[in-house]
Write a structure and sequence with these properties.
heterodimer, A: 3 strands, B: 133 residues, alpha/beta, 6 helices, 5 strands, 17% strand
Chain lengths: 58, 133
């Protein structure tokens, strides 16, 4: 939800980083990005959370 | 794939309302239009003066489950619904029969609730199957 808000408020081309400790995010965030037409840049497993880097594409 | 989600909420315990709110938010995030119809105890939980009070959990949770739910924390279901309304098209209607039973007016409910309608009104807008929680 916070990712959606950040994408909405950002400019096209902005790179946004989301940290999530919810295992569901591993599938939910890519699914939403595909649906909303934004670009996944990087997914990094950290200790106890996952870091998602995404680019606002439209 | 892009159909709408129609949910009828009956139960007023925090665990079921939380599960419903997560479904609503997920559907809204994926671009689905969501219609929610509030009946009985779910409607009662949306009263403006008690939406944040402890509404307990479903009986099947038991003591252990209740503690687990409390500990798990996370956002309150009303906040999840607010965010869902913010990111997508989510319409929440109170069942007019339940409103009558409780002696409620729309003004008595949290602003999350958009209005009240009868069952026929709900089915005028709800297409496809209805999920009952």
């Amino acid at each position: 939800m916070s990712l959606i808000g950040a994408i909405r408020e950002g400019q096209v081309g902005d790179v946004i980083e989301v940290l999530s400790s919810d295992a569901g995010s591993r599938t939910d965030i890519p699914a939403w990005l595909a649906k909303a037409g934004h670009e996944p840049v990087e997914v990094v497993e950290e200790d106890g959370f996952t870091r998602f880097v995404v680019r606002k594409a439209r | 794939m892009d159909g709408s989600l129609s949910l009828v909420l009956f139960s007023g315990t925090d665990d079921k309302l939380n599960a419903a709110a997560v479904l609503v938010a997920g559907a809204a995030a994926m671009g689905r239009k969501v219609r929610v119809f509030l009946q009985y105890w779910a409607l009662d939980a949306f009263r403006a003066d008690r939406i944040l009070k402890d509404h307990g959990v479903a009986p099947e949770a038991g003591l252990e489950g209740a503690e687990l739910f409390q500990r798990h924390g996370g956002q309150h279901w009303s906040e999840i619904l607010r965010q869902a309304k913010d990111i997508g098209e989510v319409d929440i209607q109170a069942c007019s029969l339940s409103m009558e039973m409780f002696g409620l007016e729309v003004a008595d409910l949290d602003p999350l609730v958009d209005g009240q309608e009868g069952v026929a009104g709900f089915f005028t807008h709800a297409d496809g199957s209805v999920t009952f929680i």
